Each structure stands twice: as structure tokens, then as C-alpha cells.
Amino acid sequence: MAVTKWTTTGVFTGHGGVLLGEGGTLVGELTVRTTWASEQADIAVQYVGASEWHALAGSPVLCPSPEAGRSVHQSAVDAVRTGGPVPFEPWPIPAPGPPHADQTEAHATP
């Protein structure tokens, strides 16, 4: 299983900080990390220099591809910069493009 990660450090939270999945908020300078695998993106934040990661409220989200995962990550960074006590929602994300030549579609036979 392929795993893709994006990390952005030095993101300052907007007014009200960011809402965490376990409740509570973080306020200040954060690192935002998005991990994509198996059509799912997990978004986590931590204080810069800390070791403990916290899931962003609204994470994980369905995400069809690593390319869409990059868009989800940028949406998460933007949401942290905006701040506010609302769960993260990355939509809309780009729709997946046509299959690559090395991908095949499975068809059911009647």
C-alpha cells in the first residue's frame, strides 16, 4: 500500500485556533501533516517542535488519489490559517481524472 505525506511547518492559527478531533483547540504556530493511503486522508497538527500529534476535527476524509491528497493538505493549511471552532471540510476537491494507461477497470459479466 502506497502512503504519501505532506507536511507544512510554521502555520499560525487564525482567530480561535483549530478544533481537534478529540475536542479542544490548539492556538499558535503549528505543523500540519496530511497522510494519504487507501483513498483516505488523515490530517493532524502539532505545536512546532512538539512530539504529540492531534487529529484535526473532520479528519479523516475520503480522498480518491494522492493528487487530491495534495489539495486536501492545502485546504487543511488554509483552514488552520483561517481558524475557528468548526470541523475541517476540504470539499470540493478535484475530481479524479481518466485512468492512466497502466490502470485497468474491472467489469462484471452478466
Set out the fold topology.
Elements: E1 4-12, E2 18-19, E3 25-26, E4 29-37, E5 40-47, E6 54-55, E7 61-62, H1 66-82
Antiparallel strand pairs: 1-4, 2-3, 4-5, 5-6, 5-7
What's the shape? globular
SSE string, helices as H and strands as E: EEEEEEEH
Q: Kindly state the percentage of residues in helix.
A: 10-25%
Mean model confidence by pLDDT: 83
Contiguous runs where pLDDT drops below 50 for at least 5 residues: 93-97, 99-110
Task: Assign the structural class, choosing from mainly alpha, mainly beta, alpha/beta, alpha+beta, or little secondary structure.
Answer: alpha+beta
Question: Roughly what fraction of the amino acids lie in strands?
Answer: 25-35%
> What about the largest sheet?
5 strands, antiparallel
Explained architecture:
- By secondary structure, this protein is an alpha+beta fold.
- Helix content is 15%, strand content 31%.
- The protein has 1 helix and 7 strands, in the order βββββββα.
- The protein has one helix spanning 66-82; strands at residues 4-12, 18-19, 25-26, 29-37, 40-47, 54-55, 61-62.
- Strands 1, 4, 5, 6 and 7 form a 5-stranded antiparallel beta sheet that branches. It has a two-stranded antiparallel sheet with strand order 2-3.
- A hairpin with a 2-residue loop joins β4 and β5.
- The longest helix is centred in the last third of the chain and has 17 residues, at 66-82.
- The radius of gyration is 16 Å and the shape is globular.
- The chain starts with a strand and ends in a 28-residue tail after the last helix.
- 27% of the residues are buried.
